[in-house]
Design the sequence.
């Protein structure tokens, strides 16, 4: 069976394909939407995914053709405001019809990090080519919300009927938005919110993917929204990937006074800072201040460790400065994937919240690999710095 697909990836990660009945579509359409993170401070990712579910569900996609993958640790989280029951929350987020399973993701150069594993760009490309050669889809579209998300798609071929837009280019962060004082966390991601609110308000039977891309690119002024792959697909109507919308008329949204735009890597510290400013309890303030201090110390330790690794590898102060300042494009996939995996296993496991900042240092490993430094030399440097060998 030929499928038409849309991938919605991000600091919420997702895939989706949608059912249409026009004869020219000639296949069955599915929606797969994945929230790629867990934890209360990542509330926005699961909220984004539930918002996406609501859009396609409202536009006539049968639940049996929608797959939603999310960690589902929000409804019963200890930080959940007691005034709102978990049943009420999930009803608001998913209208109680959202099929759920488990996943998670944050972005870094050439990878999306899940709770216990990572999706590397090399593996994603292999999967896409496999699907293409085995005729697993007719047309496929990605929406990717993640830091450095452009690095997952900037090598996407333009002749395999795949089109992608990303929240950021390969070198910059995506942004969180809509801080909620009651929940003390962010409710959305700026790029995702912008394309989804556009889908809420526009007539998807008339709007093209290209028009939506242009609108979202203009509104998402904190990062560079990018497009990759077969751009001729962008001339197709949004409804051909997000549902026919026969019964779903565009909805109006209330104005928002504050966007609270914050770089995604800064979200944990920004939340702690807001909590500190909001509390009048001295003991609570001391506790939060201690958490902030510990967070900054770990961040500095990770940065210093990477600097030491690079210094050992290059053996040059000048080359170290260059490696730590460049943002090179990944071409040596094998070296980078091996280096990143070794760094995770022997230095800082970024799947642990305390070490998540390690993702922000992986660009240096890209630069080392692109600089031609042997992987064995990189391993030895990590052993010396992280294991004391």
Sequence:
């Amino acid at each position: 069976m030929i499928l038409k697909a849309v991938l919605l990836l991000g600091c919420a990660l997702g895939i989706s394909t949608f059912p249409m009945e026009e004869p020219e579509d000639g296949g069955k359409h599915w929606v797969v939407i994945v929230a790629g993170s867990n934890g209360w401070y990542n509330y926005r990712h699961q909220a984004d995914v539930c918002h996406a579910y609501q859009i396609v569900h409202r536009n006539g996609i049968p639940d049996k053709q929608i797959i939603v993958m999310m960690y589902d640790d929000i409804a019963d989280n200890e930080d959940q405001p007691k005034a709102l029951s978990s049943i009420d929350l999930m009803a608001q987020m998913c209208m109680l019809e959202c099929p759920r399973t488990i996943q998670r993701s944050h972005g870094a150069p050439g990878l999306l990090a899940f709770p216990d594993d990572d999706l590397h760009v090399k593996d994603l490309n292999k999967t896409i080519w496999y699907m293409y050669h085995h005729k697993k889809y007719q047309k496929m579209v990605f929406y990717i919300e993640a830091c450095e998300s452009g690095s997952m798609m900037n090598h996407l071929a333009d002749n395999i009927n795949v089109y992608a837009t990303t929240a950021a280019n390969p070198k910059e962060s995506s942004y969180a938005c809509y801080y909620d004082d009651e929940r003390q966390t962010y409710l959305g991601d700026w790029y995702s919110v912008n394309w989804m609110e556009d889908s809420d308000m526009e007539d998807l039977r008339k709007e093209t993917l290209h028009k939506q891309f242009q609108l979202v690119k203009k509104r998402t002024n904190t990062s560079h929204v990018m497009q990759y792959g077969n751009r001729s697909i962008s001339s197709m109507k949004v409804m051909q990937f997000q549902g026919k919308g026969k019964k779903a008329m565009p909805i109006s949204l209330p104005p928002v006074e504050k966007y609270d735009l914050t770089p995604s890597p800064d979200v944990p510290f920004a939340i702690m800072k807001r909590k500190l400013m909001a509390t009048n309890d001295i003991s609570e303030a001391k506790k939060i201040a201690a958490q902030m201090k510990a967070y900054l110390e770990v961040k500095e330790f990770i940065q210093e460790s990477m600097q030491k690794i690079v210094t050992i590898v290059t053996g040059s102060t000048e080359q170290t400065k260059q490696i730590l300042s460049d943002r090179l494009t990944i071409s040596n996939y094998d070296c980078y994937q091996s280096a990143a995996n070794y760094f995770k296993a022997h230095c800082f496991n970024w799947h642990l919240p305390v070490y998540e900042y390690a993702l922000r240092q992986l660009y240096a490993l890209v630069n080392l690999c692109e600089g031609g430094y042997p992987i064995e030399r990189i391993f030895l440097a990590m052993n010396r710095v992280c294991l004391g060998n």
Remarks:
- The radius of gyration is 21 Å.
- The longest strand covers residues 3-10.
